# Entry
Amino acid sequence: MFTDMVGYTALGQRNESLSLALVDEQRKLIRPILARHSGREVKTIGDAFLVEFSSALDGVRCAYEIQRMIREANFSLPEDRRLHLRIGIHLGDVVESADDISGDAVNVASRIQPLADDGGVCLTRQVFDLVNHKMELEFSTLGPKSLKNVAEPIEVYRMQMPWAAGKTHSSSDLLDKKRIAVLPFTNLSSDPEEGYFADGMTEELITSLSGVRQLTVIARTSVMGYKGTTKKVKEIGTELGVGTVLEGSVRKAGNRVRITAQLIDSGTEGHLWAQNYDRQLEDVFAIQSEIAEKVAGELKIRLVEAEKRVIERKATESTEAYTYYLRGRDLTGERTEPSLRQALGVFEKAITLDPSFAKAYAGMAECYMWLVNDQ
# Structure
């Protein structure tokens, strides 16, 4: 597998420091994915990766996950900091020497990579023959291609990404139902300032569901961009590559809270489960646990004891301390010196109520980090 950043050379000429920063970000994102698919990083060549796999299927699955994760990460980034990658995959013999590999297979992989779209993957006929019908993705042929320093034309295929424009409705069936996005819960409280509580509910559900091994949960930074969106669930599902979406609302009034949650199939936009909770504020932890367990149950996931403990774990026994913590998180997100200093005071109140509240201490540490970095 050969990867290459789109427009890297031109970017380096315009802004060398930014180009180097993006290469570093790319490596941080890609390396864990390579490890999950048993890919051996042979070497990096500037912005490019050369990776070897013992299985063609592992290589194709890895390439798809890389492009999917980059797309997800890009949602929360400004345009000039977004990653754009092309990937080429070929199957063939290689010559290994001094921890490096060479040969026609390497050459072909590097030559077909430019044929891929921005965010796309191209593979040769040799790879296609081994992976076709073995994964829930479609491929289209680009026909025989003449490649530099390759004697005979080679047939090249393009991976059809589920989120690509112009896909038919049936492509939604390719989305993994156990890949889920928790959309920002809507604040229905009479006081708009209570919005931090709805955001906190979103974040806590993401954390709880992330403890379920069989689920892939979209990161908070990616989903918060959909706060207040009017996009349809099907469109969001396609953009994030998720088969399931959890959405809801929060209405807080004094010591009572009303929470609605609904689990939706992003392909059909049909409801898989929905529930209203009208409880005392002190029951908020139990509500979070129940929602997470219901989601797992509807997706036919049997929780093991360790996963149940993660879901049912309380960050604190004090609802008041938890409320202060959520307010502190909201203020921290503003990233201004006044808001960070105000957040410190709010976290201190949470710690006064519960001196063992680890998340409040972590919140204070994050505030100090941002204050130091901004100096």
